[in-house]
Amino acid sequence: MPDLADLFPGYESARIRTSAGEIFVRLGGDGPPLLLLHGFSQTHVQWHRVAPQLVDKFSLIIPDLPGYGSSDIPFTDHEHTPYTKRAMAKVMVELMYQLGHERFVLAGHDRGGRVSYRMALDHPGRLWMLAVLDILPTYDYWERMNRLYALKIYHWAFLAQPYPLPERLISGDGEFFLKHKMASQTKSKTLDAIDPRALAHYLAPFRDAGRIHAMCEDYRAGAYADYEIDKADFEAGNKITIPMLALWGDAGVATAAATPLDTWKKWATNVTGSPVDSGHFLTEENPAVTAKLLREFFLSA
User: Fold this and answer.
1) pLDDT score for 3
2) Does 233 qualify as catalytic in the annotation?
3) 110, 140, 230, 233: which one is catalytic?
4) Which site in 146, 153, 236, 299 is 20 to 30 Å from 99, CA atoms measured?
5) Model's pTM, two decimal places?
6) Which long-range contacts (CB under 8 A, 24 or more apart) does 140-149 make?
7) Which of 48, 80, 155, 280 is catalytic?
């Protein structure tokens, strides 16, 4: 694996033992603890342009999710249990506890956003504020899937196919798959907004068969257990009650299925939100506005 650039100079690196193995995390700043969770095909590095605009007010905790980046790869099972967002949320709670943070604020993008809202539902006492970036709940995505939406998020169904189909196909040319998928989800339909040094971080796991399998397991969990877990909460009327911010790219993924804020109001009692001039990758396509909105929200408490 080639040497990867350090995009968090001055930050501490740590490996924290959890029930899912060791979690790699970057730590920096001073102030209330703010956990930042990344999405699929990325790693903690996706926050490298936003973190400098938050680090003066918050203690930033920026991990790689289980199976991603430099974190350990959990052993899976037939139900994909370690890759459910419920399981990942539990691991992130363990991580924060190990670091001395029993309560914290949280922002998550893409898959990390799914871990984040699941944490708010499963561990409400751990959070006092929540932000999600360019997602709707997993239940809503699957329920609203139609022809155009399926074409836009084809990778949801592809990556959820039984082992080893997606693993074998991606391993044939992982770099092409990643670059094509990421470019298609930006507003410009290019990779111009992605720092080449960050892209190198994202490409590295696509050369590792174990990490490709872990990412597919994440999506298999999303198609089965995550859907059922969300459905149970929705039908029971369980809601997120802490202050919540929903941000989405005006050319992002979330807008393809519904008006994001209207959807989140069915899941949360105290939610605000707005679009950002961006595709799916808000933290890299428009980091200044994304950081400003997150900063204002988290400092409003």
Assistant:
1) 84
2) no
3) 110
4) 299
5) 0.97
6) 140/257, 140/258, 140/263, 141/257, 142/223, 142/227, 144/257, 144/258, 145/257, 148/256, 149/256, 149/257
7) 280
